């Protein structure tokens, strides 16, 4: 799984930018990680972002354990 992520990071981030400093690289990579986790859809997660998938799982779990009078 991590090899797949590193390929995506290379293809969608590193190869598109020429970094001028560590700070510049840090900012670009931080922005990419935010995009990757909050906006980029993932086929393996039902075409949702990781954060949307996490939210749907938490919502489902909460419904399972909800106590009804």
Question: What do these coordinates show?
Answer:
With 69 residues, the chain is mainly alpha-helical. The protein has one domain (2-65). The chain is 64% helix and 0% strand. The protein is built from 3 helices and no strands. The protein has helices spanning 2-12, 22-38, 50-65. The longest helix is centred in the middle third of the chain and has 17 residues, at 22-38. The mean pLDDT is 90.
Distance between the termini: 43 Å
Characterize the biggest β-sheet: none
Low-confidence stretches: none
**What is the approximate shape?**
elongated
When the domains are counted, the total is: 1
Total beta-strand segments = 0
- Spatial extent as radius of gyration: 17 Å
Order of helices and strands: HHH
Summed up:
This protein has 69 residues and is an all-alpha fold. The chain is built from three helices and no strands.
Describe the protein's topology.
Layout: H1 2-12, H2 22-38, H3 50-65
Supply the key terms:
69 residues; 3 helices; mainly alpha; single chain; 64% helix
């Amino acid at each position: 799984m991590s090899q797949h992520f590193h390929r995506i990071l290379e293809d969608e981030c590193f190869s598109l930018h020429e970094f001028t400093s560590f700070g510049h690289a840090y900012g670009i990579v931080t922005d990419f990680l935010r995009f990757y986790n909050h906006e980029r859809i993932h086929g393996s997660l039902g075409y949702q972002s990781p954060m949307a998938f996490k939210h749907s799982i938490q919502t489902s779990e909460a419904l399972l354990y909800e106590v009804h009078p």
